[in-house]
Amino acid sequence: MNRNRLIGFAVAVVLLSLLGFALYSLFEIVSETKYLPPSREARLNEYLALDRWLESYGIPVRVEDRGDFSVLSQAGEKRIFIQASLFHWEGAQTEYLTRWVEEGGWLFIALDNIREMEMEGFRFLEDEFGIKAFARRSEYRYDPESPGFDRGVSFEPLGEVLLSLGDSGGNIKLIQVRRGKGTLTVTGEPRFLQSVNISETPNARLAWALFAADSDEGGWLFIRGKAKVSGLLGSLFRQGNLTVLLVSLLVLLSIGFWSVLPTFGLVRGEEAKPGKPLRERFLAEGYFLKKYVALDSYLAVYAKEIKLRGKPVDENDISIFQRSLNGKPVTFREFPELVKKYMDILERS
Predict the structure, then answer these.
(1) Is residue 35, in this structure, part of any structural domain at all?
(2) pLDDT digits (tens, 9 = 90+) for 10-38
(3) In a domain, 207, yes or no
(4) Which residues does 177 contact at the CB level (< 8 Å), separation at least 6?
C-alpha cells in the first residue's frame, strides 16, 4: 500500500475517534416527550374510558342525553345511570323508578348540581330510600387511597345501608341502599369515573365494583350530557396549520369578490337606451352657459375649429366670426342664430 495513503488513513481514523469521544462526552441523547391533546370524542365524552372499559368486558353501553318517563319505560337495561340535572324529576318518573328498583333494578344517581335540583327529587331520595342529600363543601385533602368524590355534596343515611364511603373529614360521599330486589347508589359528581381519573387505582377499583363486578346483569343505560368543547377556530389555532387556514381564507375571499363584482360593459340581456335628442342637449348647454354669462365661449370653440380647418367664410359672416374670436358677449337671443351660421360654415365643402 502507498505510504502516503496509509498515513492519511491513520490520521482519519484518529480524527474520527477524537470526534466520537468528544460527542460522547459533551452531548447526551435525551428522549423528548410530545404532548398529544385528547381527541374530540374524548373531549365530548368525559366518560369515554369507562365506556370502552365496560365494552371490552362484554358489557353493552347505551347513552341518552336526556331522561324522562318515556326513556325509562322503553329501556331494556337492568342497570341505569342518571345524571340528576338531565332528568325530569316528577311524580310519575320517581314512582316508576321506585317500582323498577324494587323489582330488581340497579340504579345509580349522580347529583351533579344539587342546588339546581327540584325539591321533589330530594323527597324521592329521602322518603322512598332513606337518603338525605345536602350541600356541604368539605375541605380538600389529597388521599392516594381515596377515590375522587365530589366535595360539594354529602349524604346522611336515615336507615340501613349496604355501602357508604366518605372522605378524610368524615363526610359520606357515596351511599348505597337496598330496596326490594334492587339497589340504589347515590353520589355527587362522579369524578372517579371520568377518563382523567379512572386510571388511578382507588378510582378503578370502585368503578369495577359498582359497574363491572356483576357482568351477568346485562348492559348499562347512561343518561348523561356531553362536555363543552372549544369552537372551530380554537381547535384550528391549537392543532391546525395556520398557513393553510390563511391561504384558504384568501382563496375564498377572492372567489367571493369575483362572483359578486359586475362584469365590464353592458349588462347582458339589456339594450342600450337612446340618448336625448341633439336639440335638447344644445338647449341644456345653452341654458347652462347663459346662467354663467359664457355663451361667447361656446361660439369661440366653433370659431377656432373653423379657423383650424381653413373653411371659407363669407363676407357676411366675417363680422360674426371676428366677434366670437374677440370674446364679445353674446345675448341669449343671438345665440341660436350664431350657432346655426357656424354649423353651416363647418358643413361647407
Answers:
(1) no
(2) 888 888 888 888 888 887 878 888 888 88
(3) yes
(4) 129, 130, 131, 157, 159, 160, 161, 162, 183, 184
